[in-house]
Amino acid sequence: MNSCGHYGNHANCIESVPIFGSLSREEMLEIAHIASSQTFEKHDMVYMAGDQGGTLFVVYTGRVKISRLNVNGREQVIRVIGPGEFIGELSLFSSLPLTDNAQVLEASTMCVIQGAKLKELMAKYPSIAFKVLDELSRRLEKTENLIETISLSTVSQRLARALLELSEGSQEVLLNMSKGDLASQIGMSQETLSRKLAVLQEEDLIELKGHKRIIIKNRSGLEEMC
């Protein structure tokens, strides 16, 4: 591990994290002082369910998939995070083992912050704790919405809603995960996802461009499906 405390001409991982956004430069230096960097190769596991926590991982570069396995060993993708986002935060508030798996999707660099030291700074700067709790609330809401969508929506409705959300108001979706992971996240098999995407393309609602790019040709049509 290397120090993450160097401040150069470009923002480092500490400065890129929203929960630290309200801190002064001096206060950010305190965070950087207790952080170290760690690099991961594609497919590496950052941590696995059952591991002891107590560490906050901040993504500086790359992407990480957060997932769980059900009793049958089937993977449920919860989310994919990128630069500026963090994982392992629940272990800051609980002594229980971690419940998720965190796997690197591409070569990544992370800032690693020991929870005990971070909690000391939370006591000193309550704004950090409030922002962590705010992010936890947002993630809980997204997870509850995902559960509701999988439980109450048809496969076609789930896919249409996912495409609209991923487009973020634009006419294009650039997938930040594999289609297999997207299928898992919205509760269907990869074969079903491919078949449904083909149907949407035949209906001229979307246009598939390679493996990662999807053009939305009829947004109102997708909205009606939801």
UniProtKB/TrEMBL annotation:
Coiled coil stretches, renumbered: none
PROSITE patterns xrefs: CNMP_BINDING_3, HTH_CRP_2
Residue span, Cyclic nucleotide-binding domain: 19-139
HTH crp-type domain: residues covered: 153-220
UniProt KW keywords: Activator, DNA-binding, Transcription, Transcription regulation
GO cellular component: cytosol
Gene Ontology molecular functions: DNA binding; DNA-binding transcription factor activity
Name of the featured protein: CRP/FNR family transcriptional regulator
Source organism: Fontibacillus solani
